[in-house]
Design a protein that fits this description.
- By secondary structure, this protein is α/β, with parallel strands linked by helices.
- It contains eight helices and ten strands.
- About 35% of the residues lie in helices and about 25% in strands.
- The strands form two sheets. It has a six-stranded mixed sheet with strand order 6-7-8-3-9-10, sandwiched between helices. The chain has a four-stranded antiparallel sheet with strand order 2-1-4-5, with helices on one face.
- The structure holds adenosine-5'-triphosphate and magnesium ion (MG).
Length: about 240
């Protein structure tokens, strides 16, 4: 079963004259263990594709399957359970809970799931923060962190529940190049070590080499994917499969 399969998925916002076709009959398969990079101009439908794939938004038509399960027909309640257990999101606008510390922002997704916040959960949160270059900042509130640091907390939060599908919108936009590389290394490592899969939306050329495949979206339509190597010459960041 592929990690994600979109079959003839369209998303139209609004109606009549105001209608915007954000996704136009999209077909896409993301394999287990695959890191797919999604690129395309502003307004082309990238965020819409992520939110539909992660069950935050229902498509206007078409079918969305995650790990072989058709999620298109699920009730709102089952969709939210599904999201909590199976999908890790990192949004374009980082949405940290302002009155919780960095560590608590990771642990809160455990609580949503009804799981106890025990020592292993805290250890995992601390380990993720450490790996994201935030060791020692676990007790900081979002307001005390820089934009890039907040973004890294959001990445940690997305990885916290060990999701099978990770959806990331512009992970490196506010990170300098060394940090951007560290964050991509971490995402890549999570994906390859756990057999999960990811879609990474980016405008950042340096991110392209981290993907197994690059797909371009224009006006809501996908163009055929290419192997990473055909599109980049970033030999230094080629990875063994
Ligand atoms: N809630 C909404 N209501 C109406 N139109 C929307 C809504 N969200 C997005 N759109 C429109 O749908 C199209 C696709 O938007 P989307 O946010 O998916 O683009 P994007 O590729 O993520 O762009 P960017 O790179 O700027 O983030 C755009 O024309 C946008 O204006
Ligand atoms: Mg977007």
């Amino acid at each position: 079963m592929p990690a994600l399969q979109l079959t003839d998925v369209s998303k139209i916002y609004g109606s009549e004259e105001q209608a915007v076709v954000a996704l136009d009959h999209v077909n896409l398969i993301v394999d287990n263990d695959e890191m797919l990079i999604l690129i395309g101009p502003s307004g082309s439908g990238k965020t819409t594709l992520l939110t539909v794939a992660g069950a935050l938004l229902r498509p206007t038509s078409g079918k969305v399957q995650v790990g072989g399960d058709d999620i298109t027909g699920l009730s709102d309640k089952r969709l939210s359970t599904f999201r909590r257990d199976r999908v890790g999101f990192v949004f374009q606008s980082v949405n940290l809970v302002p009155f919780l510390t960095a560590q608590e922002n990771l642990l809160v997704v455990r609580q949503f799931g009804g799981a106890r916040i025990d020592r292993p959960a805290k250890d995992r949160a601390d380990r993720l923060l450490e790996e994201l270059g935030l060791g020692g900042r676990g007790k900081s509130l979002p307001a005390e962190l820089s934009g890039g640091q907040k973004q890294r907390v959001a990445i940690g939060r997305a990885l916290m529940n060990e999701p099978s599908l990770i959806l990331v919108d512009e992970p490196t936009s506010s990170l300098d190049s060394e940090l951007g590389q560290q964050v991509m290394d971490l995402i890549r490592r999570e994906i390859k070590s756990r057999g999960v899969s990811a879609i990474i939306v980016t405008h950042d050329d340096r991110v392209l080499g981290y993907g197994d495949r690059i797909v371009r979206i224009v006006d809501g339509s996908l163009e055929a994917g290419s192997n990473t190597s055909a599109l980049t010459n970033a030999a230094s960041i080629r990875w063994p499969k």
